[in-house]
């Protein structure tokens, strides 16, 4: 089972998924620049992620490493979205997405290719 992460915690995780293992101070610097958070906010969120089992802390240097892969979180979030908003129906999700945007011929072909790979 994947842990439930809030949007702010996902920003911390995204930094680690993108950059790899980092000292907490570097995570705070990155999120300070990207999001405008102060060091205390970032450290609080890192500690929450540690408590949830999403991040491992090692010393010296308060090194942070993601324990759960991004793909696992994406899958869990997608399942939750489909379940909550589309009655568990993936085809309803796709119909909603495709009905809202004019797709280019290239995007349509990529979608056909993806569906073809699933068959």
Strand content: 5-15%
**Topology, number of strands:** 3
Average pLDDT confidence is: 91
Instruction: Provide the helix percentage.
Output: 55-70%
Largest sheet: 3 strands, antiparallel
- What series of H and E elements makes up the topology? HEHHEEHHH
Cα end-to-end separation = 27 Å
Rg over C-alpha atoms, rounded to the nearest angstrom: 18 Å
* Widest beta sheet: strand line-up: 1-3-2
The unreliable regions are: none
- Structural class from helices and strands? mainly alpha
Compute the number of helices: 6
Shape: elongated
What does this structure look like?
The mean pLDDT is 91. Strand 2 (55-58) and strand 3 form a beta hairpin. This protein has 119 residues and is mainly alpha-helical. It contains six helices and three strands. Helices cover 65% and strands 8% of the residues. It has a three-stranded antiparallel beta sheet with strand order 1-3-2. The longest helix is centred in the middle third of the chain and has 16 residues, at 70-85.
Helix/strand layout:
Elements: H1 7-19, E1 22-23, H2 24-34, H3 39-51, E2 55-58, E3 63-66, H4 70-85, H5 90-99, H6 105-118
Antiparallel strand pairs: 1-3, 2-3
Helix pairs in contact: 1-3, 2-3
List its traits:
119 residues; three-stranded antiparallel β-sheet; 65% helix; mainly alpha
Write a brief structural summary.
The chain has six helices and three strands.
